[in-house]
């Protein structure tokens, strides 16, 4: 995780030391990682007296090794990763050069956005263009390791019960809103009190707003499209006695939904139907239509949750954005006919890119004149913990209601 948060800096330094990329991708990655580890080791050995690089948060996640250990282990790894006889010598030379010239390395990337923020150039540029007044705070919040937030399953436990159990377990817990509790230094979640009993689920504050916005009611026919891994589906079932159809095109992830619902005591053959299908290509999910409520948590670039999965930024390509926008549009258009008049559809994406949020919602309204845009949060920007709040992921929400068309009474 730490390396991925600083991968932009690592790659920038690697390119400075190796004018040409090695034909071995693993060797390239090893050199980049070795440079990060060398920087950490040198900072620790110097007791904070060196010029500070862009690596952060240094104290929380960074591994600590001695300089000689980093060099030795990286050279050993090079022998395993590459059959080329020059590989170990190359790695040793690069790391020793960094040791001698670290200050020059740090100073030379001060104006480099990729090194500073740890994202590809196109990612930084897009955030900067979309949010010219707040782009730096957005990128900074997305760099920091997130707090662990859980949602109490009100059908099995109370907030106070969970808080007391955490306290007895030596875990600092704080109730922040509704069913949300923030944990500090929690460790492995499976070992925390109440996990096996289904008292709670891990879910960020922004994600917890989905079910609350959709506002399920007893007896409602609800469709959760793209439901895996099931956090929002579970929340809907916790809030009301509904008939739920949960759909996902990934069979393995759909199994995770079933497992989560079983653990929480929410799965019922008569009330919950899991459907493995692609919404765009099959109508198997329409058996429960017309639906009163539809949750469209559509696929996206996940740019709003990159602090939880820092590798996302490096796995995505700029061209992926247009592809996800088109996929979202196709899913929304497939879902809308199955919503009952007067029913509500919630568009949700864990993204900060306007193309997947505000612009997607505007396009939907243009294509569907019978859609009414209800009050909803719109774009939620990622927020770092501190300053009186515990932080939350980036998200977008748009709530729509299908207009009821009243037939005119044509009297004789």
Mean pLDDT level: 92
How many beta-strand elements? 11
* Radius of gyration computed on alpha carbons: 25 Å
| Count of all domains | 3
Q: CATH superfamily name of the largest domain?
A: Vaccinia Virus protein VP39
Please report the distance between the alpha carbons of the first and last residues.
73 Å
Rough shape? globular
Helix content: 40-55%
Order of helices and strands: HHHHHHHHHEHEEEHEHEHEEHHEHEE
**CATH first level of the largest domain:** Alpha Beta
Secondary structure category: alpha/beta
- CATH fold group of the largest domain: Rossmann fold
Describe this structure in words.
- With 412 residues, this protein is α/β, with parallel strands linked by helices.
- It has three domains: 2-118, N-utilizing Substance Protein B Homolog, Chain A (Orthogonal Bundle); 147-203, Sun protein, domain 3 (Alpha-Beta Plaits); 206-402, Rossmann fold.
- The protein is 43% helix and 17% strand.
- The protein is built from 16 helices and eleven strands.
- It has helices spanning 2-5, 7-17, 25-45, 58-61, 67-81, 86-108, 113-117, 121-130, 135-143, 159-168, 205-214, 231-239, 251-263, 312-315, 318-335, 358-367, and strands at 148-152, 172-177, 180-184, 200-202, 221-225, 243-248, 272-276, 291-297, 339-349, 371-380, 395-402.
- The strands form two sheets. Strands 7-6-5-8-9-11-10 form a seven-stranded mixed β-sheet, sandwiched between helices. Strands 2-3-1-4 form a four-stranded antiparallel β-sheet, with helices on one face.
- Strand 6 (243-248), helix 13 and strand 7 form a beta-alpha-beta unit.
- Helix 8 crosses helix 9 (135-143).
